[in-house]
Amino acid sequence: MAPAVVVPDALRRRYLGSRAGRTWLQELPDRVEAGLAAFRLVPDPAAGGQAWHGHGALVLPVLSTAGSPAVLKLPFPHPEAATEAAALQLWNGRGAVRLLDQDAAGTCLVLERLNPERTLLDVDLPEAVRIWGSLVRVLSLPETESPQWAAIPSLAERAEQLSDELPADWDALDRPFERWLLEAALEVCQTRGAVGRRSAGDVLVHADLHYANVLARPGAGGDYAAIDPQAVFGEPEYAVAPMLWNRLQDLDPEAPEDALLARLEGLCAAAGLDRSAAVDWSILREVANALEYVRLGLRADAARSVWVASALSGRRHPGLPAVRDLPAA
Questions:
Q1: Which among 11, 13, 158, 205 is least buried, having the fewest CB atoms inside 10 angstroms?
Q2: Which pLDDT belongs to residue 220?
Q3: To which H or E segment does residue 60 belong?
């Protein structure tokens, strides 16, 4: 019998703070064993029996009965993870990790094995932007009759919801940043929300397509694939923001705001996106992120989001540290 899977310490620390998280951690070893049995998999001895993890999932390297490598993924149950199986089925391995099998609830997934040692974090920024852009073009699928689309939430409807939620949260959290930044986000809600627009160009969007979520496929071909989609249906420019709030230390410290805008323009050029829409969505996303970080007591992370949003808006927000002193995302 294979030894019980040890939950990585970083993943354990992340979820010990809530009752739901502690319950999930307690159940993980049994769920892993159930998944191994259901899909007729065994832990890969070449991986030393060690589990990997992302921000919100345990990932175990496994072998099929035929000896083929794969991973067994058990995500923490939260709304953003609920779209993963449906999105991966729609992409079917084109630009994204291939879904090989899943349980009925979509809470235990068997995925193709990618190379966790090769991500866009390790690629020079110009090349990382090029690879990212090529993936966005492939991942941006128009809606079809496939039943999986029912699981993908509307981005425009989410923007409309935020038009009510953001002001209430800003007040409840003691107005943690300047009103003009909140108003910039609310303007995006009005112009991009369900009431303000409907677009025939809406597509399936990988909403968390940052450097660490793009992994190389094994082999020497240099092919990369996306993981952890957190998918939505809407304007493809929504995908840009995570590439801005990560790798801030790569910006020119003498003119970081200009460098951030130049990065956004490079991302848009590589993926064929509209610059104005990318700026809009990125401001909205970072204002929403800042409020969530404040709610969680993560003031340094909130400062990072405020810096990115204000830089994109063309104004400097008072009281923020230098870019080099902002925490990595």
A1: 13
A2: 62
A3: strand 57-64
Q: Cβ neighbours of residue 186 under 8 Å, at least 6 residues apart?
A: 163, 166, 167
Active site residue 252: no
Query: Strands 203-205, 115-119: parallel, antiparallel or unpaired by DSSP?
Result: unpaired
Task: For tokens 């832990």, name the residue.
Answer: 43
Q: Contact at 8 Å (CB) between 183 and 167?
A: no
> How far is residue 199's CA from residue 16's CA, in Å, rounded to a whole number?
42
CB atoms within 10 A of CB 252: 12
- Give Cα 315 distance to the centre of its chain: 27
Closest residue by Cα to residue 18 from 58, 74, 77: 77
Report in angstroms the alpha-carbon separations of 27 from 2, 14, 43, 233: 17, 15, 18, 32
Question: Which pair of tokens denotes residue 78?
Answer: 């939260």
Catalytic residue among 44, 169, 202, 208: 208
Structure tokens at 242: 């995570």
Residue found under tokens 């996303």? 285
Weakly modelled stretches of the chain, pLDDT under 70: 1-4, 48-49, 194-198, 220
